[in-house]
Amino acid sequence: MSVDFDFKDRYNFDDFVKIITVLRSPEGCPWDREQTHESIRKNFIEETYEAVEAINKKNPDMLREELGDVMLQVALHCEMEREKGNFDFNDVIHDVVYKLVIRHPHVFGDVQAQNGEEALASWDNAKEKSKGNRTASEAIDAVPREFPALMRAQKVQKRAAKVGFDWDSCDGAVDKLYEEMDELKIAMSRGEQSEIKDEFGDVLFSAVNIARFLKVDSEEALTGATDKFVARFKVVEELAAEQGIDMKEATIDELDALWDKAKKIKND
What we know:
Blueprint: H1 13-24, H2 30-34, H3 41-56, H4 60-84, H5 89-102, H6 105-108, H7 116-131, H8 136-141, H9 149-161, H10 170-190, H11 193-213, H12 218-242, H13 252-267
């Protein structure tokens, strides 16, 4: 038995909310009805990354579609909670509008902000007030563990720095990186895998600290470095094929020479 639904040339927000309710209803889709917050949480992440991909590609048609997929995930989670009687989509909208008003005192209040930096400072101050008198540890704990590791590390460091737990300059952070590298070498010489993993984590954490001082987003920086490696590796593979070199059998010196040529080609 089919479900009644008004077919239109153009749908609006109310239609969107209605169809989600229909899909989750006993007469709706068996798959949609079976889903839980936990079963589709990875879908949420995937759809968000695909929206980011559309932004990076500067593709408005793709972005339009992917933003719809992100909204679908939001709507499904809202509908699950509506069914339990906890909250619905309108409650979520109310909360975010209220938050935007409270955290923009430089727009809706008497705080002055002449540029983006001052506006961000106003936002952060209003956010801390709305959260209550949190300790530094509570603020750090509030950074989700589910964030990408580099992003989480940089945010944790930034919050620690707000209460003075920081180096005086980037030089201190650089020295700490060298210190952690030495400790990693010692762990490697011992061959204890758990110790190696621990020390390697410290190396990464220290490298992120340097990025923070340099005002570099560590997540974006690593993505860029990976993209650069992929582009150069493709050139290396092409050069090897042209010269009849089997990369699996080549020496490290031969591969390094190809890599240097690839760098020059990509830099040109």
